[in-house]
């Protein structure tokens, strides 16, 4: 791999915050992950474009990260650059006709609160999803009967040649926990959402209800990447895991939550290998006992030389 120092210098030219050899366990909700070569806070579309082109021209591997809530990162780290879309690339704008534009580094919780303050309904399902707007669009995040694809109308993205594009919902290939961006179409810069006028007190009540359901049913007190497995056709991952008697199964510091069997949690000192070994054990036993093939929902970032 090319010397990373040139990339760091290029990022500093665009006033991006940079960290060399940054530990990724500080940036993932699972609290696991080794060091990356460079961690760069993207601050605008121009810096993103130039850094993507630099990586491409200099054979530097990179990944894009938002809030790190749907990632499992190898303890050996990532031998490349992380382009981080966080608070330096966030912002929400109220447009006409109850439409909201949001930069991809904005947290979903901030977007939900903005909608609430403006008495706009449609995003209540997303209250409590611990991700960024970009990540939510990327994987068509959803909960409690709602998905991002229900409210999004368009997005802006940058392709791997540095060109900026607009794309409408109909061309985003949305399905369960999938969009066209899941296949590497480009890096999401922002998205527009069509909401509906509502009553603030009713919106707040719905948000409170769904948050309470999360607290009651999900192991929010432990680090995790949310639901560990996608919902298989014809059943539910948590039901299958429970039927197989796997609640509480553990490997090292990784454990199948006894509160919600669809969650693999970090009880305090789980390693990447603990988590992956437990996931594979669960998948193997569920396949043997039920015939269902469970698919991991979080993205797995493995170390590569």
Concise structural overview:
The chain is an alpha+beta fold and 305 residues long. It contains seven helices and 18 strands.
Write the layout of secondary structure elements.
Elements: H1 5-13, E1 18-23, E2 35-41, H2 45-57, E3 62-65, E4 71-73, E5 78-84, E6 92-94, E7 99-103, H3 108-117, E8 120-121, H4 133-139, E9 142-143, E10 146-147, E11 152-158, E12 164-168, E13 187-194, E14 196-197, H5 200-217, H6 237-243, E15 250-251, E16 254-256, E17 264-266, H7 272-290, E18 299-301
Parallel strand pairs: 2-5, 3-5, 4-18
Antiparallel strand pairs: 1-2, 6-7, 7-13, 8-14, 9-10, 11-12, 11-13, 15-16, 16-17
Structural commentary:
With 305 residues, the chain is α+β, with helices and mostly antiparallel strands. It has 3 domains: 5-86, 2-Layer Sandwich (Uridine Diphospho-n-acetylenolpyruvylglucosamine Reductase, domain 2), CATH 3.30.43; 90-216, Uridine Diphospho-n-acetylenolpyruvylglucosamine Reductase, domain 3 (2-Layer Sandwich), CATH 3.30.465.10; 221-301, UDP-N-acetylenolpyruvoylglucosamine reductase, C-terminal domain (Uridine Diphospho-n-acetylenolpyruvylglucosamine Reductase, domain 1). Helix content is 27%, strand content 24%. It has 7 helices and 18 strands. It has helices spanning 5-13, 45-57, 108-117, 133-139, 200-217, 237-243, 272-290, and strands at residues 18-23, 35-41, 62-65, 71-73, 78-84, 92-94, 99-103, 120-121, 142-143, 146-147, 152-158, 164-168, 187-194, 196-197, 250-251, 254-256, 264-266, 299-301. The strands form 6 sheets. Strands 6-7-13-11-12 form a 5-stranded antiparallel β-sheet. Strands 1-2-5-3 form a 4-stranded mixed β-sheet. A hairpin with a 4-residue loop joins β6 and β7. The longest helix is centred in the C-terminal third of the chain and has 19 residues, at 272-290. The radius of gyration is 20 Å and the shape is globular. 42% of the residues are buried. The mean pLDDT is 96.
């Amino acid at each position: 791999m090319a010397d990373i120092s040139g990339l760091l210098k290029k990022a500093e030219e665009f006033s991006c915050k940079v960290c060399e050899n940054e530990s990724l366990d500080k940036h993932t909700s699972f609290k696991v992950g080794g060091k990356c070569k460079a961690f760069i806070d993207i601050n605008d579309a121009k810096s993103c474009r130039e850094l993507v082109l630099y990586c491409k021209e200099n054979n530097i591997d990179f990944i894009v990260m938002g809030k790190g809530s749907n990632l499992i990162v190898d303890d050996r780290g990532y031998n490349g650059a992380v382009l981080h879309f966080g608070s330096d690339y966030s912002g929400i704008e109220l447009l006409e006709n109850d439409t909201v534009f949001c930069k991809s580094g904005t947290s979903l919780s901030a977007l939900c609160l903005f909608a609430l303050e403006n008495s706009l309904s449609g995003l209540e399902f997303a209250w409590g999803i611990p991700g960024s707007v970009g990540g939510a669009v990327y994987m068509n995040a959803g909960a409690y009967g709602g998905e991002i694809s229900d409210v999004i109308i368009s997005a802006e993205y940058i392709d791997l040649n540095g060109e900026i594009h607009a794309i409408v919902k109909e061309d985003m290939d949305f399905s369960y926990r999938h969009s066209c961006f899941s296949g590497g179409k480009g890096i999401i810069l922002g998205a527009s959402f069509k909401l509906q006028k509502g009553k603030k007190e009713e919106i707040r009540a719905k948000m409170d209800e769904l948050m309470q359901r999360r607290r009651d049913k999900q192991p929010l007190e432990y680090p995790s990447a949310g639901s560990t497995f996608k919902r298989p056709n014809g059943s539910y991952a948590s039901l299958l895991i429970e039927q197989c008697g796997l609640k509480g199964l553990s490997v090292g510091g990784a454990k199948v939550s006894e509160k919600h069997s669809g969650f693999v949690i970090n009880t305090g000192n789980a390693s990447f290998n603990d988590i992956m070994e437990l996931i594979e054990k669960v998948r193997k036993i569920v396949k043997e006992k039920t015939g269902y093939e469970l698919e991991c929902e979080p993205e797995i970032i493995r170390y590569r030389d």
